[in-house]
Specification:
Layout lengths: L5 E3 L2 H11 L11 E5 L5 E6 L2 E19 L5 E14 L22 H4 L9 H16 L16 H11 L34
Parallel strand pairs: 1-5
Antiparallel strand pairs: 2-3, 3-4, 4-5
Length: 200
């Protein structure tokens, strides 16, 4: 697998990068292209020609698969992409979070809020206590802080007699008479023998 990332740049900068990557380009104006990061690994500078732009490394809300082809007919998976380098203009504000809110396509707009479930607010002590109780129950012992109540079973004959006498017996409701549906006169009756199976 290869290591890949997505480089998102402003439209004006994208035209300059296209000209730089063009094989027939002969202008020496944008020949140099550089990307360097600071010690935190999340912020850096993107240099093209003599211009410097601020850049940020952001985590995408979901993994994007990348494919390549050698013969224009079959695709081979090349990488899983989970990060994006966003290059900003001089006046644009830096993102406040390292997790990018949106995906790469319009349906994934605000994907972190709309498509992924928020983590529940659970007390870690409660989770560990429940986990210990479950382990004790699975081992055959009683759980902590649980009251065990033993109930005596009544004699089956008396219990059934009481339950029958206390509960009224429901009577089935009568269904109204519904005439049978009249068959369509245009369709002849078909039997299974009339249909032939030619799929053999």
């Amino acid at each position: 697998m290869e290591e890949q990332f997505i480089l998102r740049v402003p439209p004006s900068l994208a035209e300059r990068i296209d000209r730089l990557l063009d094989e027939n380009s002969s202008s020496a104006e944008d020949k140099s292209l550089d990307l360097s990061f600071s010690e935190d690994g999340r912020s850096g500078t993107f240099v093209i020609g003599n211009d410097c732009f601020s850049a940020s490394l952001l985590d995408l809300p979901c993994v994007v698969e990348s494919y390549k082809t050698y013969d224009d007919s079959s695709l081979v998976k090349a990488a899983n992409i989970g990060q994006m380098i966003m290059v900003r203009e001089a006046g644009d504000a830096a993102p406040d979070m390292i997790e990018y809110r949106h995906g790469l396509t319009p349906p994934m707009r605000d994907a972190r809020k709309r498509r992924f479930r928020r983590e529940p607010d659970l007390n870690p002590e409660l989770v560990s206590r429940v986990e210990k109780d479950l382990l004790k129950i699975m081992a055959g012992g009683p759980a902590d802080n649980v009251e065990v109540e033993a109930a005596e079973q009544e004699d089956e004959g008396h219990g059934n007699a009481r339950s029958v006498s206390n509960k009224p017996v429901p009577t089935p409701s009568a269904k109204p008479d519904v005439p049978e549906a009249v068959r369509n006169a245009e369709e002849p009756d078909r039997s299974d023998s009339d249909e032939s199976d030619d799929s053999v």
